[in-house]
């Protein structure tokens, strides 16, 4: 099931590799969409606001693990492209120990600091208890998040994007079934939705771990590989740390915006919670295509195929922009119908706010599509620091403009929404200018 991305048709190879990743992450979005839909429809606007705000915090914290796994995956891809099998196994062991240690620290930290964190987020008193209960349950499943993302990154790094999809598919179906049972039948409320997600994450993470270790022994470290080599630890730490910083900065910015949104009350919080799910679902395919593109670049970079890399960049840019334009058109036209998936028709204020958000964001998906490609490009060619710089530009602009523009009475909420695409475009221009003016290793 592994694909060698250094041979064959460039566009076809990238799309075949990306498709299972896209389907997998779309399924992963169903985790959150199932929670949001069932909670919004069955428990009301306050519960929807609580789960939506909790999701922003949850995404920020788990993005640290995701960044570590993505950085490790870049190293795995390079070793695979070089055919350095022993170094690959040692890298797998070192990375696993590193990410597992960080997972433990995060888990302990969340349970100790949950109340101060929620206070910083300006969570309204009316939903405070519900949100706290949801978060307390959801973070019992952080081990499942670690296991799934680590082994999925490993398999994708060596060209196997199908197996992670299969495990995630089972988990998504389980999550929806448990959501319905816990919330509708057992009446466990928001905590029931969290419990469904936790169980599903543990199933997918543990299942993928067992599959990789027992069905793919060529990636199982032998005793000689189970040692911490300083050179390998330094390389993995550099890639993982910078990718982790990138993911954390990205989601810290989102968390800060969530705090600003919270200050506008539960109506805006509920609209934002629903609209962000739609927004994320809409551009998720180009995010995964960017990750597939990064693996393509890393394997070919390790194999020394510079011309193939240049052709791959052109192909990926055309594919991503065309897809984003099509999705932008669809979201603009169907914004209200999409919001009605999550909220009742009589919630007219929530609908109006959500539609406004989607139409502003949706017109500029090409901006984030290009940004995901730039992230993947610089991460793959051993320049993860540039990915971090682009993230800081994008999110720094978003946060600063959101706070400044929303404070102007005539602008208000529209300023928060407009700040996002402005940040995307500034980061795109920076990344492209660096590529054209400074050049990178394969030009």
Automatic annotation (TrEMBL):
Species of origin: Clostridium porci
Cross-referenced CDD domains: MATE_yoeA_like
Ion transport as UniProt keyword: yes
Function of the molecule: Multidrug efflux pump.
Ranges in a coiled coil: none
Membrane spanning residue stretches: 53-78, 90-114, 134-155, 162-184, 190-214, 315-335, 363-381, 388-408, 414-436
Membership in a protein family: Belongs to the multi antimicrobial extrusion (MATE) (TC 2.A.66.1) family.
Name of this protein: Probable multidrug resistance protein NorM
Subcellular localization, as worded in the UniProt entry: Cell membrane
Membrane topology, as annotated: Multi-pass membrane protein
Xref: Pfam families: MatE
A GO cellular-component term linked to this record: plasma membrane
Keyword vocabulary terms for this entry: Antiport, Cell membrane, Ion transport, Membrane, Transmembrane, Transmembrane helix, Transport
Biological processes per GO annotation: monoatomic ion transport
An example Gene Ontology molecular-function term: xenobiotic transmembrane transporter activity
